[in-house]
Amino acid sequence: MKRQFEEALFQASLPDLQRIPKSDLHSHAGRGGSIDYIRQWAQAPIEPPNRPFDSLGDMQAWFEANIKAHFRGVQGYLKRIEASFAQAGKDCIEVLALGFGLDEIGALGGTKAFIATINELQRRYAPNTAFFPELALGRESRIEDILSELDEVMSYSWFKSIDICNNEFAQPIRNFKPAYRLAKSAGLRLKAHVGEFGTADDVREAVEELELHEVHHGIAAAKSVPVMHWLADHGIRLNVCPTSNVMLRVADGYANHPIRKLFDHGVPVTVNTDDLLIFNQSVSQEYLNLFQSGLMSADELDSIRETGLRYSMC
After folding, report:
1. SS3 of residue 22 by DSSP
2. pLDDT tens digit string along 133-170?
3. What average pLDDT is seen over the chain?
4. Of 179, 113, 125, which Cα lies nearest the Cα of 150?
5. Between 244 and which of 42, 98, 274, 300 could a Cys-Cys bridge form, CB atoms 3.0 to 4.6 Å apart?
6. pLDDT at residue 43 above 90?
């Protein structure tokens, strides 16, 4: 596939890129579909954002007004999940990690019903995709509330990884150690959103405190050579989302994206979508953006693609 992938980049052929196996290891389930897919169902003139966001709050406000306003209730939620799996099928996503929150489980009637519903959607819309469901905890959540639900959710052995998302300054990362000890004992892969808006030291602290296997975003690590060397030495992969970083003003653009520096220092990286329903760039488009900006060569991008396909839960 290497030759076909590189040729598709040189030809700027999105249809050809869409036929090549890829991974998406950082995607929020209710935001992982394409605007084109949901527009017809909503019967609304939904358009992608026309400017970068000033903050996560600004981004959320856009999402509420332009997406969730048309997808209320359980039916609307399930349509957005359907769109996420349909996107995986369309873009030849062979390995998919989708994040789900505890509130989403409750909205579908509890863990057993939730699992059955999501499994059926995956079977119908992305049957050829290796699906790794991820439990996403809000950084603002009370740890006592999380722990009260965690044992029951994990008893089904369905989730394959755990994550902390939202405002990374809401509370110290170490507060989540009890939850991560439970997740580790259950055999989950340990991840967290960190270093998107914070510092390189925040990235290392999170990895050490929670014994992380991976970091979602983590691009602040590019500001510290020692931290990059440490991540590389420990094999900590960063699941990078270029358009998300540009649209949230933490990267100047594709041509100056920190993934270049991280890659050069030997940090394992992957290319992902984060919130496709907001940022409107598929995995294939993300690769094309990085190539056309001149930031990375076709050979380098193919090695990143292969890193994602080697995704393992061990």
Report:
1. strand
2. 999 999 999 999 999 999 999 999 999 999 999 999 99
3. 96
4. 179
5. 274
6. no
- Are 168 and 133 a contacting pair, CB within 8 Å? no
Report the relative pairing of strands 130-138 and 189-190 from DSSP bridges. Answer: unpaired
pLDDT confidence tier of residue 312, bands split at 50, 70 and 90: low
Burial label for 164, CB within 10 Å (0-12, 13-18, 19+), is: buried
Phi, psi at 271, each rounded to 5°: -110, 130
Residue 100, token pair as written in the block: 């789900």
Token duo for residue 163: 């994550």
Residue recorded with tokens 């991008």: 301
pLDDT digits (tens, 9 = 90+) for 46-76: 999 999 999 999 999 999 999 999 998 999 9
| pTM given for the model | 0.95
| E strand intervals along the chain | 22-28, 93-101, 130-138, 161-165, 189-190, 193-194, 214-217, 237-240, 269-271
Q: Are strands 214-217 and 161-165 parallel, antiparallel or unpaired?
A: unpaired
Residue of 105, 129, 126, 102 lying closest to 116 (CA atoms): 105
Q: Which two tokens stand for residue 16?
A: 């050809």
3-class SS of residue 228: helix
Is the pLDDT at 314 greater than 90? The verdict is: no
**Residue type present at position 95:** V
Query: End-to-end CA distance of the chain, in Å?
Result: 25
162 - beta bridge partners? 135, 190
